[in-house]
Amino acid sequence: MTRRLKEIIIKRIFFLFACVSILILGLIVTFLFREGIPIFRIVSVPDFLLGGEWYPTFDPPAFGIWPLIVGSFIVTFFSTLIAVPLGVLSAVYISEVAPRPLKEVLKPLIELLAGIPSVVLGFFGMVVLAPWLQDTFDLPTGLNIVNASLMLALMAIPTISSIAEDALYTVPREFKEASYALGATKSETILKVIIPSALSGISTAVILGMARAIGETMVVLMVAGGAAAIPESLFDSVRPMPASIAAEMGEAPFRSEHYHALFATGIVLFLLTLAFNLIADYVSHKFKEVGSGTL
Amino acid sequence: MEDNRVIKTKDVNFYYGKFRALTDISMDFEKNRVTALIGPSGCGKSTLLRLLNRMNDLIDGTRVEGEVLFEGKNIYDPEVDPVEIRRRIGMVFQKPNPFPKSIFSNITYGPRLAGLSDRVELEALAEQSLKQAVLWDEVKDILGQSAMMLSGGQQQRLCIARALAMKPDVLLMDEPTSALDPISTAKIEELIQDLKRQYTIIIVTHNMQQAARISDKTGFFYIGKLIEYSATEKIFTRPDVKQTEDYITGRFG
After folding, report:
1. What is the pTM for the complete model shown?
2. If contacts are CB pairs under 8 Å, which of residues 136-195 in chain A contact chain B?
3. Which of A262, A249, A251, A220 is nearest to A237 (CA)?
4. Other CB atoms closer than 10 Å to residue B138's CB: what's the count?
5. Domain ranges of chain B
6. Under CATH, which architecture does the B2-248 domain have?
7. Average pLDDT by consecutive 10-residue portion of chain A (295 residues)?
C-alpha cells in the first residue's frame, strides 16, 4: 500500500468517527422534535410556553409549562447567586493566593466535588437539609427552592471553579509583573489586572455553571418539592422542567398528548442549554485577541 | 561623595532553592548615570536587576543574603515594604507588557493606586510621561484605545512611560530592546540618553554594542559573579580581566 493511500484511509477513518457523534446528536435532536412537535396541534406555542396551568392528566388536560419554566429559572438563578461567588473566589484563592502545598490539596478536592453523583447530593438534600429547613423555619416541607438552589450550587461550584481557575492561570505572568513593578499590592493586582484579564474565561465558567444547573435532573427531582405552580416565596416548592419530565415520563402513555407535551418541554430545555453554550462560546471568543503584547 | 551612589549592594548572595545564582556581589550604582550589566545568558545579570526592586520576592523558594542599600537603607530589612520600594524604583521588562486596557489606563494605573484621583492631574501626568517616552505625538488622539493595538516598539515606549508616570528615582530595564526591531531599538536608546538627566538607569543587555553606545559604566557578569566593573570606555577598550576581553571580543558567550 502506498503511503499516500494510507494517509487517505486514516483521514477517512477519523472523519467517520467524527461523523458518528454528530450523527447521533442529529438523530437525538430529530427524535426530540418529532416527538415534541405534535403537541402544538393541540395547544399553540404561546399557550404552551406561557400557560399557567400544568394538569396533563386532568380531563380536559392543561399543558401550560410556564410554572415549570419559572421553577427552572428560579432555582438556576439562586444557585448561580450562591455558586458564582464561591466558585470564582475559590478559583482566585487556588490560583493566586494559596501556597503551593495547599493548592495541590484544594484543587483535586474541589474537582472531587464534581464527581459526587447527583443522586447522592439529592439524597443529602432530602434526608439532611430538608428536615433541618423544615424544623428551623417551621415550614410545611423542606423540599423547596432554597433546598434545590443550595444543592444545585454545590454541583455548579466545581464547574465554575475549575474553568475560572484555568482562565486565571492563563493570565500572562508579564501582566502580574508589570502590576507589581508599578507598586501594586497583591490584592490590587488580583482585582485590577488578573481578574479583568480573565473576565471572558470567568464569564464562560459562570454560564457553563448555569447550564449545568438548569439541565440537572436528579437533584431537582428529589429536593425541589415538585409543585407545578408559580412560587410565592423562597420556601415554596417548584417543579423545574427536568424534574417534570423525569417524574412523568414513566406514567405518560406512549404517543399520548402528555407524552408529546413532555418531549416539547425537552425541546425548550434543549434550546435553553444550547443558548447558554452559544453565549459561553461567544463570550470566550470575544476577548480572545486581547493577549499579551504582540510584536 | 556618598550622595552620588543611589544603590549599593554589599556581599549579595542569591539562591533559587539550593542553586546559588549570585555570589558576593558588591556594586555601587551612581545617580544620573546609565549602568549596563552584560554577560552571557544565565550569568545572573537579570537576577541582580530584579533584586534591586524586590521583584524576586514573587518567585517561590528564593533567598537573599547580604544587603541592598537604597539611599543608605537596606531594602531587604524586614520593616521595608516592597511596594514602597517598587514605587520608587521602576522597571521595564524584556517583552513589552502593557495591560489589556486603554493607553490612558495603562499610564495612570500606578499613580491611581498611589492615590492620585484628580482627572486633570492624571491627564497632565499622562501627557508628560508620554512626552518623556517620545510617544505622545503618536498616541495623543487615541488615548482611549487599547494598548494592544500599538506596535511592539510603541508598546515598549508605553511601558517606559508607564514606569515614568510613577516618578521613580531609578529605572531598571531588563533587555528592553531585545524583542524590538532596529528602528524601535534606536528610538529607545535615544530615549535612554535623554532620561538619564533625570533618572538613574540600570540596564541589562545582551547587545554589547548597545552597552557601549548608551552606558557610562558597565559591569560584566559570569556564572553569578561580577568579574569586572568600571567605566564603559575602559571595559570595551582595555579591560583588566582576560574573561571580559574574551567575551567582548566574541570569543565566547
Report:
1. 0.82
2. 172, 174-185, 188, 192-193
3. A220
4. 15
5. 2-248
6. 3-Layer(aba) Sandwich (3.40)
7. 90 94 95 95 93 90 94 96 96 93 92 90 95 94 94 94 93 93 94 91 92 92 92 93 94 92 96 91 69 35
